[in-house]
Amino acid sequence: MKPEDFILGPRVTRRAALRTLAATPILLMGAPALAADPAGLSGYWVLLAPNGDGTYRKSYFYLQQSGQTLTGKVMFGNRDLPISNGSVQNGKVRFEVVIHYRTETRRINYTGQVNGEKIDMKVAFQGRSPRTGTAQRTTREATLPPKPLPLPELRDLPDNGLVRTPPMGWNSWNKFAGRVDDQIVRSVADAMVASGMSKVGYEYINIDDTWQGGRDSKGRITGNKKFPDMKALADYVHSKGLKIGIYSSPGPLTCAGYEASFGHEEQDAKTYAEWGFDYLKYDWCSAGNIYKDTDMRPVYQKMGEALLNCGRPIVYSLCQYGRDDVWGWGAKVSGNLWRTTGDINDHWERMDDIGFRQFAIQHYVRPGHWNDPDMLEIGNGGMNSDEYRTHMSLWCLLAAPLLAGNDLSSMTEDTKSILMNREVIAIDQDPAAQPAQLVTYVGKLMVAYRKLHDGSTAVAFFNRTEKEDEIGVEWSAVGIEGKTLQARDLWKHDTTEVSGHHYSTKVPAHGVVMLKVTEKM
Ligand code: GLA
After folding, report:
1. What was the pLDDT predicted at 23?
2. Torsion-angle region of residue 410: left (phi > 0), alpha (psi -120 to 50) or beta?
3. What integer pLDDT is reported at residue 482 of this predicted model?
4. pLDDT of 483
5. pLDDT of residue 175
6. pLDDT of the residue at 381
7. Across the beta sheet with 204-206, what order do the strands follow?
8. Fewer CB atoms inside 10 A, N or C side of the chain?
9. CA angle 282-288-293, nearest 5°?
10. Which atom of ligand 1 lies nearest, measured to the CA of 375?
């Protein structure tokens, strides 16, 4: 048997291979060498990699084999990445793909062994453990995203009346990502009560990506093996006096490649309601392969309408990374909160960058409609306590949703003291929801403030530099006129009387001093 025969497998003839190639005229153009040697692995492939929960992650690639050389592309959504260093020898396949992301370059290595008509493959993302899967032939059509759905005419949807103060709770993604399961969600719900977090206002237990199985014969979404009974889980969380959240996407797949709501919007909203869910995070992701950014408003309106009609109050959280100036229309699709940025991570630089960019859009915040600079990383270990106090203070000053992203069942005392600082939380939850404003800005030394419903002022002194420094402000710059003032330090929990026009304080590197200042007449 010649190597090519082995690669092709017994039932794929040279003629069949030619037919496959003829069906893909665009890719054949300018490839006379391939036409002369068309056999082998040339054609479209789908790689099915098991997620370990009964579902598979699908990815597609197109190969062109010429002798022992493989070229082609791997398709990531609507992005095609060229294959490099591709070869096939004695049934052993290898190729790689290079991804340029911001300043980084990452490689994905594909290796495989032809096995009949399939290829047993290993996919190794740089720095991660390899995934295995099986590739089988597919058609070009199967690799294409579905056609866009007809979208509703734009109209302003009514306010659902929920979350008059920023939502507080927990979300599974930052800590558990794809490892989240029913047991973890239950134990986090237990811990939210046992730790005292529920007493200080945390309420929602939100399951993020990777809970989905598929659809049953009636098209109804199901949980996967990690989530055998979504209704029972919702009942459990409710029995703790808490609320529960779920996650989907307007595209066919979620960001992690799981079944999403495309074409099933009303049905899914009804299913969430029947299960007893109270919150939906709706993440753009694969919808980006189908719709333009300017379609975002009608796409989100579609689910907004479905939620309003599903028979249960459900908080609507838009997640499209702040594109298309969502703060201008998020409330009109009945949205309660909208992400304003890409994903946070557990590093000072990212949190600092996201957090301090929020002031420019603060005036869009109002009761029931919140800017969402992403979930908290407090307690996940990548920042020190001063940095986490800055994270908490800044999110609270901004009236951001407070969704803890750590493992609530194993928190240090320090983590608890940050997440459960009632005085700082009270700033977040202030019912007036006035916009926070940045006042002074000396390099990376900053003062910001927010007027509170009782006439007092929250003032935060942020030191974004690498060393301790003194930060000062004229009281008039934060709208404080009184001569005698009471300054409550919200982290030290002590009150001092201050007078004079100016105030200054030492602030640790990457740290914060946060005051609540009350004027004494
Ligand atoms: C996107 C979102 C994240 C998280 C993941 C899940 O990246 O922005 O918050 O939901 O998807 O796949």
Report:
1. 35
2. beta
3. 78
4. 81
5. 98
6. 98
7. 370-372, 337-339, 315-319, 279-283, 243-248, 204-206, 168-171, 402-404
8. C
9. 90
10. 9
Tell me which residue has its CA closest to atom 6 in ligand 1: 209
Listed as ranges, residues in the chain with pLDDT below 50 are: 1-38
Selection from 53, 48, 49 nearest residue 213 by Cα: 53
Determine the pLDDT at residue 441. 78
b/e burial code for range 175-196 (CB count within 10 A of at least 16 → b): bbebebbbebbbebbbbbeebe
Contact 377 CB / ligand 1 (< 6 Å)? no
User: Beta strand 484-489 with 402-404: parallel, antiparallel or unpaired?
Assistant: unpaired
Q: Is the CB of 372 under 6 A from ligand 1?
A: no
Distance CA 230, CA 179 (A): 16
Which residue, by CA, sits nearest to atom 9 of ligand 1?
343
Q: Which residues are catalytic?
A: 283, 343
Ligand 1 site, residue 283, Cβ cutoff 6 A? yes
pLDDT value, residue 126: 82
User: pTM for this structure?
Assistant: 0.91
For the purposes of burial, counting CB atoms within 10 Å of the CB of 158, is it exposed (0-12), middle (13-18) or buried (19 or more)? Answer: exposed
Q: Would you tell me how many other CB atoms lie within 10 Å of the CB of residue 168?
A: 21
Angle between helices 296-308 and 265-275 (to 10 degrees): 40
- Which residue spans within 355-424 are E strands per DSSP? 370-372, 402-404
Q: Express each pLDDT in 40-86 by its tens digit.
A: 899 999 999 999 999 999 999 999 999 999 999 999 877 899 999 99
H/E run at residue 394: helix 385-397
Closest CA to 276 of 251, 239, 303: 239
Residues listed for the chain: 521
> In whole angstroms, what is the distance from residue 53 CA to residue 56 CA?
8
Distance CA 491, CA 510 (A): 15
